[in-house]
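Backbone-to-sequence.
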């Protein structure tokens, strides 16, 4: 079993990966760090750099957690990729980061986090960054 975390280089993403490392250490499980770019996008702010991912792997290693990074691409949103990997690896937990959004922002843009919470067949831990 493993823990799957969706990681983007934002405060919410950092909170998610921190919580996922803590949970993996407590449970004695491996960690799967998922970062994905939108297909055909020329500018993608959710793509982690090699330095970002190296730092995350070092954090996990320092906590005694074996971690692996999965980089991929997605068409519409990253929800299906997270859920498919959770199923494939029989995840004991999916960890996601949340950010504050206005009501209108939620209505117009939708929410990957919301879709994961509603569609996941595995337990989900949703975390927010510290203020």
């Amino acid at each position: 079993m493993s823990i799957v975390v969706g990681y983007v280089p934002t405060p919410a993403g950092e909170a998610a990966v921190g919580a996922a490392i803590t949970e993996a250490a407590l449970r004695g499980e491996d960690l799967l760090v998922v970062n994905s770019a939108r297909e055909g996008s020329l500018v993608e702010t959710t793509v982690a750099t090699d330095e970002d991912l190296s730092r995350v792997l070092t954090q996990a290693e320092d906590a005694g957690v074996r971690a692996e990074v999965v980089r991929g691409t997605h068409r519409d949103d990253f929800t299906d990729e997270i859920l498919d990997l959770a199923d494939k690896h029989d995840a004991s937990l999916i960890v996601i980061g949340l950010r504050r959004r206005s009501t209108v922002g939620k209505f117009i843009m939708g929410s990957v986090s919301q879709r994961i919470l509603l569609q996941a067949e595995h337990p989900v831990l949703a975390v927010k960054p510290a203020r």
